[in-house]
Specification:
The complex is a heterodimer of chains A (about 200) and B (about 400). Chain A is of the alpha/beta class. Chain A contains 3 helices and 21 strands. The two termini of chain A are about 30 Å apart. The N terminus of chain A is likely disordered. Chain B contains 5 helices and 23 strands. The chains are: A alpha/beta (about 200), B alpha+beta (about 400). At the A-B interface, strand 19, strand 21 and helix 3 of A face strand 10 of B. Chain A: This is Dynactin subunit 5.
Chain lengths: ~200, ~400
């Protein structure tokens, strides 16, 4: 009991809410193995679909606006084993389309998105690794088995072919390279390890 | 990325095949294990630089049009345009003006914009843009597009042949087409260009012409007919720095893990040079490495093995319940679920991996935040995998090969 009390005293804010939060686990876990941090911000939960074994880390922001026009179709859909690292943002609400015409942000299975990355209205395929501090513009399509290196910027409406590595910023050092077939397995393993170790 | 950070040296860059001296090429290479192929006939590693490359198909990734039957075409001829400044895709908008239409191209990333004249006839946009291009350049294109014409003199034919040969060599070096294109019409306002095509390529061994990677030609499919990957044969090497309390008299204690990818047990022998120069270890000082265990066996990889089961203990964390449980299971030396345990010499063996301790020390003061890269020469002795065509190989049922790897020490 003394240990818990000393831990409580170390909580920066003295509010009861903070103390209650401290006593709870950081993660909300589902039966399917999905973990969602209590510090993640999920806006419009009814328009977001999260599959089994996903991880949504602290500080992540999922902006899924609710719209009657869309019916049951989700604005954000995460496949299984998707790993969203701390402070990444999925924000499909900044659509350039007409008002009410909401786009989607679909992320395939075994995809990992790094810290502080921003994903706008996009389609990301299976087994994709998006590094940290990346920016994926609106209406981008990242096909299966791709690596977006740290700090890369994928411009609006880009279509990235399967088995590609993207790095750099357009107009400066933007390069799309071919990846070997071995990366299919490597990227899937990477997603599993992110889920099990982080 | 987890695990796959070590750099492996392809056989094309290690001509001397020396296991005593570090090959100079190890300094410049950046190839990790997934980037390499393994020729089961020559029993050597192959990389993109030394393979024979053939284009199986080329297509526009935007509209998925197949251009495989159009030799010489490198850009999409449909309405897929990219910015001449930053190679981002261009958005096209049409405006009705009188009886015609005016098209505007806008880049989604930079400030590039281009407006066409009012077009009154239904013609493809690319054709309209080509007509606007520098007529001298168009004439040149026209001239060289008829290279098979019988009007060419023998001297011109010879010159063209030379040009095409040099172009092919250049193409071999340039693996991807998605590079920023140059604009030949520097005096005219830059015109939008068609999107660069993407190629599907096959890779063959230069020694025996065996296909190492052969994709299906259909651009809509991601399947491969042949995959001879180094990842399936060579062991994975990972090094991790040990706990701080193990630091003794300037020596940094580390662990080197070897993960077996083969379905058969393997005998591993590891060695390194006595003094590792700063040019290889990526620090500013010379390092010496002490490797107490140099030869050991690693168990085979089983089918449907658990992810954490196949991971060395040093990589397990306390962040997730699964990882904590695995760590706890391994800490039980007797009656544990797995055979992972420590031997007297510090060797730890797991399901398909083994970890050996080693230490390094610097000749001068080294900042403890700077972690070095260490070169190791690894020899693997094992049974030939059933997947390999034994009839093609000359070494019977046994497989023995050595390779250099540059392993980063991770925290």
């Amino acid at each position: 009991m003394a240990g818990i009390w000393s831990n409580l005293c170390s909580v920066k804010s003295n509010s009861i809410a903070d103390a209650v939060f401290f006593l709870m686990s950081e993660w909300i876990e589902t039966k399917g193995g999905t973990r969602i941090s209590r510090l993640a911000i999920i806006d419009g939960a009814s328009s977001i679909t999260i599959s089994d074994a996903c991880t949504v880390s602290a500080g992540c922001k999922l902006v899924g606006r609710e719209s009657a026009a869309r019916g049951t179709k989700p604005v954000i859909a995460l496949g299984k084993y998707v790993f969203l690292a701390a402070n990444c943002t999925l924000d499909p609400s900044k659509s350039s389309g007409a008002a009410g015409d909401l786009g989607e942000c679909t992320i395939g299975n075994y995809t990992t998105i790094g810290e502080n990355s921003v994903v706008k209205l996009s389609f990301i395929g299976n087994r994709v690794r998006v590094g940290s501090n990346c920016h994926l513009g609106e209406l981008c399509v990242i096909n299966d088995c791709c690596i977006i290196e740290d700090g890369a910027v994928v411009p609006k409406r880009s279509v990235i072919a399967p088995f590609s590595r993207v790095r750099g910023v357009p107009g400066q050092d933007y390069v799309v390279e071919e990846l070997s077939a071995a990366y299919r397995r490597v990227l899937e393993l990477n997603s599993h390890l992110c889920k099990n170790l982080e | 990325m987890y695990l796959y950070n070590s750099i492996y040296l392809c056989s094309c860059k290690n001509k001397t095949e020396s296991s005593v001296a570090i090959p100079a090429a190890l300094r410049g290479t950046k190839l990790t294990l997934p980037d390499l192929y393994f020729c089961s006939r020559c029993l050597v590693l192959r990389c993109n630089d030394c393979c024979i490359i053939e284009t199986v198909a080329k297509y526009c990734v935007n509209c998925m049009t197949d251009y495989s039957d159009s030799p010489g075409t490198t850009r999409c001829i449909k309405n897929c345009f990219e910015c001449v400044k930053c190679s981002s895709p261009l958005a096209i908008t049409a405006l009705d003006v009188g009886k015609g239409k005016q098209f505007t191209f806008n880049c989604g990333y930079c400030d590039y914009s281009y407006e066409t004249e009012v077009i009154t006839e239904p013609i493809p946009l690319l054709k309209h843009l080509r007509a606007k291009a520098d007529p001298r350049f168009s004439r040149l294109c026209e001239k060289y597009s008829h290279r098979d014409s019988t009007t060419l003199t023998a001297q011109m034919e010879q010159k063209l042949q030379q040009m095409s040969l040099s172009a092919n060599t250049e193409n071999k070096k340039q693996f991807h087409l998605n590079r920023l294109g140059s604009n030949p019409q520097s005096l005219l306002p830059p015109l939008p260009t068609g999107k660069h095509l993407v190629a599907k390529r096959s890779y063959s061994c230069p020694g025996c012409n065996t296909k190492l990677l052969d994709p299906v030609a259909d651009p809509r499919l991601m399947k491969y007919l042949t995959k001879e990957l180094a990842l399936d044969i060579l062991p994975l090497l990972v090094a991790k720095v040990g706990p701080e309390e193990l630091e003794l008299e300037g020596d940094t204690q580390c662990y080197l893990s070897v993960i077996n990818a083969l379905p058969s047990n393997a005998k591993i022998t590891i060695s390194t040079v006595e003094k590792i120069p700063s040019t290889f270890n990526k620090t500013e000082t010379e390092l010496s490495v002490s490797l107490p265990v140099t030869s050991f066996a690693v168990s085979s990889r089983r089918e449907k093995m658990g992810i954490l089961e196949s991971l060395p203990t040093q990589f397990l964390t306390d962040a997730t319940a699964e990882s904590r449980a695995e760590k706890l299971t391994r800490s039980v030396t007797k009656g544990g679920r797995y055979s992972a345990n420590y031997e007297a010499n510090g060797l730890e063996k797991g399901a398909n991996w083994a970890t050996v301790p080693f230490s390094y020390s610097a000749t001068e003061d080294l900042d403890c935040d700077i972690l070095p890269w260490l070169p190791f020469y690894v020899t693997i002795e094992t049974r030939m995998p059933a997947s390999m065509n034994r009839a093609l190989t000359s070494s019977g049922n046994g497989l023995k090969l050595g390779f250099w790897a540059l392993v980063p020490v991770e925290k």
